[in-house]
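Data card: per-record layout.
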Amino acid sequence: MSKSDVITPLIVQLTRIADALERQFPGNLAPDALAKADAYVWQSDIRRLVPISWVNRIDIDLLKGIDKQRDDLLGNTLGFVEGFPANNALLWGARGTGKSSLVKAVHGKVIEHGFDLGLVEIHREDIVDLPYLMAFLAKVDRYFIIFSDDLAFEGGESTYKSLKAALEGGIEGRPDNIVFYATSNRRHLMPRQMIENERSTAINPSETTEETVSLSDRFGLWIGFHSIDQKTYLEMVHEYINFFNIQTNDIDVTQEALAWSIGRGSRSGRVAWQFIINLAARTKRSLRR
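The structure for this 289-residue chain is written out next.
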């Protein structure tokens, strides 16, 4: 066996090891190397922000039945990009009521106003990377919303402590160019059973309960979402039909929309949108603007 026959496989193996280490422990990315985009997704395996070319959002004017929630979040965000103090926001409430749609719609509206605002999505399971991500974005000369959808913690998890520390910002405080928006079905981000279990096993129950509940207190703005009535549900459906110019012809939209909601067992913005998808497919109408 020649020397080259031994060295070549060794080089290949060392290259693979180096690539694996680079993926797990990448070098610090220079702030000015971040590609310009409206939105990004945090990829924890490579610890990089991946630009998104198109954000799946609904026009803010199509979000019905949540006027107060819309005004609160939009006002907070506009104040933020104008350089004024702004709160981290927790959008909590029933499923399908427009929480994540509102975050993305507000982001789009602020961009329409001419502000340079990036939207960064971080998945719940990657929250442990939040302090690193915030430290990096703090060095970028731009405003950012860090967004986590469907945020909640289960029994036995301790990553919520990373979230608390990141939102508080430590001795330096939260970076002025970052706000954190999260959606959740739980007002306190943790199931009641988890809070009760921690209280029952703690040396000082009141302090432990305070610690778990205080996670939500890190969000200065709480925005609640609730189930909608039939009138608002039908208003959503007809607004979508008009906006996308869907030709319903002889279709009894009201009756079909109500039957659709009964079949799903709920009335919500998500159910209305799913009905519109079905209606658009039947009438051969695109929903892309």
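Known properties of this structure: The two ends are 65 Å apart (CA to CA). DSSP finds ten helices and seven strands in the chain.

See the next section for split statistics.
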